[in-house]
């Protein structure tokens, strides 16, 4: 028996075995088993993040949750430590990359339904809708499945702070309410004999809970035990009188009276058709007295105009719950719900489904009017809408006033003494809605519209619910609902891709599923292949059904004013998924204020969404439709001009950002034909990088489009101008793709100098992804091209990159030789930047070769040269090199001084990749000096940064460093966890030398743990890897230790 007194049920089919469980002891489990969480605060931390799964939780909120109102001075640092350990535990159990750092907070990136509490509350919400729909069997099933998720008291072993206590109390209350809902459903099904015993057990712990007492009284009466039912009432009434001086509530009093009268309606011959409304229902509960069927004395027919609910409906629990809150609204003002969203998102389905669940609360009827506002040609004038509802309210046609004000006044008069639900579907704007607003809070108005409720909110308080695309899980679930779970499970990857191609739009998903359902032999993959093409909208229609995706979009497009319609179709030509007001202004040749005004109209019409301040997104299917409109309504010359403006805008922005981020990268200076009047960021490298973070995917899309559609010069120039950004952020996979596009575009231009420049950049990208041999092949080709063009500066840069590739292969002599050649070439042409770069690189190479004294000579010349040039990037590199050289010579104080200066410069520039690299180096110096705590702090921050920028190489290095530090601290459990994570990551981001060091440390860990066989296995692996990494000295030294 569980804590609330109910018998445990078998585990439900959707129990979240993988994920986080807080309905009992706090646990997490992944593909590899349960997570190991040491300490109550780590468990509590995981619980807070799980409660807010999918949402960023601010650092201050986590500190409040873990320590309450009096956190220790070290709370921030301790929180970082707990975060690192929880992340390690999640990675180790098979939930990799689940915990992310986001700005000043943290995000547990798992589906909400993989947290047992969310799954439980989802099932409870679903059950209550089933109860409202008078489907108690389904409600009972959902509730039993939800209650079976409980394993004890909520958050049983978390830190007992105010947050944990409050959240546990909330969850336990939801649990008890769910128990009550379950036994209400069972009583509706006539299972009173089973209910009696279970309700008595619940009452042992909660003897004065009125709803439980009422349910128990009804069950006892139905079992032929009326005396016991009346005795239960007397006990509760005596307690309330003694303790509070009050009587039981009116619902329980009515039930008591019905039992005394032996009311036949108390017997469960047939389930109640409609439950009469009651105050307690506002909290989602139905009182026991409401189970008594009562015949309505009103002889006149009550309007019941709601359409039938949609046959297939999934998800939307949050939106349904938001509408539920309308029912609890206080005050005399009208209650107005407003569901807004793009066409095809299921606004009507949501509104009608919710409306059916609340029918019992509006006994005087439900009115439904389709205002037709999705298309100007079908929009219903308010006078006609009022005529329709007045007729529904029983007003003869001859007595309906002619004028709008008189009709509205009569409507308000008729509703003033009634409790009615009014649903206005497809409203175009406030003029259609305002005359139909009920006069009091007794009735409720629910509106659906493709427009935002801004104008209506000027006149009335509006409870707005925004409807957007279904997430991936809900979209696939909708497909399964139509096609059957077995068919979707046979092709899970195709189902996910199909959901993505439909953009999560319910209408598109239902059309696609209907087409598949009509042809059982057709696979999901076959339909998916057809939807990949640009004629996707043709596929998303059903013969004989006028409501295709294109039709829905077309009605919204035709309703737009001419300037908004033009901007919408021109934005369809933009290759990227998101855009800013600046880009919109450039595409349409508008001023920025004018573009923002027109964008506001598109946002209001839900044809464009504003996903962040001045950043907009157009749904994938809407973008296809906008492109169709551009093809139909714009000339070929106008479309070409728009594309040229879009490409020119990206060139100008990339050039301006490049000048700020990497001023030494000056081989290309853009001169677009249509320069923007205003840049979208301040004259600051950090601001430029932050803007490019949002434009990254869009920039890549523009380069692809330019390369594929004849804008070859722009494609390779954009590639060059963006490489500084991609370098600083560590987006190496994107940079490889970008550079390959640039190489192809430059080759098509027939410009060997440009091709040499692009191949040199591709070589760098391949080096950073550890493909050193491929990089050398590409760079040799680049070297030949620069020599053919007489490009001495370019030749010097290629030699420099060849040196970096050789250093990666640990061919240090060849690296120094190539660096010297680069230095000589730059010296010969008087390139101050090339000379400074050469000095720095040679110094760095000598550090790696163990010749620190010689390294200092070069770096001491490189640093002032970089400062004289004002090149902060090169200055930081020289400072970092000096720090490493001093560390190699044993001067740890000087090393830390230089490294901290380098860190400050890189942080100021917003260079997160090099910041992470520098923190790893600083941590290594602390470790060498025996300061383990400082080392762990630096490595921990390096790990968080590397994960933020998704740099696996830096992440593996940070993990290995953390493991090495714990090994030195003689903490074998933590050391093993970090080192094994590092080893696993190195298998996907190979670096033979680093992998060898990790295996060597794991071997030492096994030796200390008394496992010589494992030690030998790891050491032999390390020897083999050292040899592959061209590190024979390290290989032989290690081999000698276990020979």
Automatic annotation (TrEMBL):
InterPro entries: AfsR-DnrI-RedD_regulator, BTAD, OmpR/PhoB-type_DNA-bd, P-loop_NTPase, Sig_transdc_resp-reg_C-effctor, TPR-like_helical_dom_sf, TPR_rpt, WH-like_DNA-bd_sf. It comes from the Bacteria. Keywords: DNA-binding, TPR repeat, Transcription, Transcription regulation. Residues 12-110 bind DNA. TPR repeats lie at residues 876-909, 916-949. Residues 12-110 form the OmpR/PhoB-type domain. GO terms for biological process: phosphorelay signal transduction system; regulation of DNA-templated transcription. Pfam families: BTAD (PF03704), TPR_12 (PF13424), Trans_reg_C (PF00486). SUPFAM superfamilies: C-terminal effector domain of the bipartite response regulators, P-loop containing nucleoside triphosphate hydrolases, TPR-like. GO terms for molecular function: ADP binding; DNA binding. Belongs to the AfsR/DnrI/RedD regulatory family. This is SARP family transcriptional regulator.
